[in-house]
Amino acid sequence: MNSVASEAVLIGLDWGTSSLRAFLIGAGGDVLDEISTSQGIMHVKGRDFDAAFHGLIQNWHSAAPLPVIASGMITSRNGWQETPYVSVPAGKDALAHALVPFTSSKGIPVHFVTGMTANHNGAPDVMRGEETQIIGAAAMGLGDGLYVLPGTHSKWLVVENGGIEDYKTYMTGELFGAIKNHTILGTFMEEGPFNKDGFVIGVKAGLSAGADLLHTLFHVRTMPLFDKITPEMTADYLSGMLIGAEIASGTAGGGDQPVTLVGRGDLTDRYEIALSIAGRESRRAPENICARGHFEIAKSAGLLS
Question: What is the number of other CB atoms lying within 10 angstroms of the CB of residue 205?
Fold first, then answer.
């Protein structure tokens, strides 16, 4: 084992739908090494998660066995080992207590972080993986408050005392794709670079739509029809409207504290712009909060020597 690996105390896996990240984690929760692949659960050949797992960690694990903790969609019904859900409110101790032990074909113990569930108006909400990121972010000093994880299914989480008090899922990204590609509203849209002007107009419309969102969405067709916006603006107008409506709901009753954005890239940039339009201060979570979450949960579970 090389000198970096010899300082490690834990291997953490963030195994999602489209990607897989593995972290070699040191005694202070810092990331010593990282491997990123496209082997998300929907891209593992023959669904042979066992082989993918061993191929990924073999160099780290060969000389001195390390405890392994895994979170994300790998614990879903479509993953390697389905695990139950912990109900909110819950923090690292509850997640540590609920770890699901598993042994690979080569005898390597793996500890799966279970998912988390909430209930609103009699209907369940679920997430897998985001809870580990939030535990890590809180431990890295971001503290309590409102967190958002932009994505196909965006998550808004309320964090109190370092744990997750409640959360909601918004199907914003998936709805955007469905409207753009499968409805008449997409007929005026032209591909092109990000159009901030169109996005800003859409955000303002979404923020003020309220109960009229289903009506306001039809403006995605009528605005370019009457030359209020250009075809190059229309897709970003729709994007802004949906994100604006999401932010109006996600921030309702959440005080005026900064919103912590968890994510990278263009989509997170859009949320930052939209939050500013909504008059909300935002900040970015640092990288590798998932690895820190793995560390905190493993430490609470007594997995670290």
Answer: 23
Q: Are 58 and 45 in contact (CB under 8 A)?
A: no
Q: Which of left, alpha, beta for 255 (phi over 0: left; psi -120 to 50: alpha)? A: left
Nearest Cα to 293, choosing from 108, 106, 162? 162
- For the residues of 227-269, what is the DSSP string, one character each? TSS-HHHHHHHHHHHHHHHHHHHHTTTSTTSPEEE---HHHHH
DSSP string for residues in 152-169: TTEEEEEEETTEEEEEEE
Question: CA-to-CA distance for 101 and 109, rounded, in angstroms?
Answer: 7
DSSP tag of 141: I
Taking the CB of residue 273, how many other CB atoms lie within 10 A of it? 18
Please tell me the predicted confidence (pLDDT) of residue 51: 95
DSSP state of 105: T
How many other C-beta atoms lie within 10 A of the C-beta of residue 287? Answer: 10
| CB burial of residue 299 (10 Å; 0-12, 13-18, 19+) | middle
Per-residue pLDDT tens digits for 209-233 = 999 999 999 999 999 999 999 999 9
Tell me the CA distances in angstroms from 199 to 61, 141, 238, 247, one per residue in order: 47, 32, 7, 14
126: helix, coil or strand? strand
The sign of the dihedral angle between the CA atoms of 193, 197, 198, 199 is positive
DSSP code of 90? B
Q: pLDDT tens digits for 21-40?
A: 999 999 999 999 999 999 99
Task: Note whether 31 and 288 are within 8 A (CB).
Answer: yes
Flag whether the pTM goes above 0.85.
Answer: yes
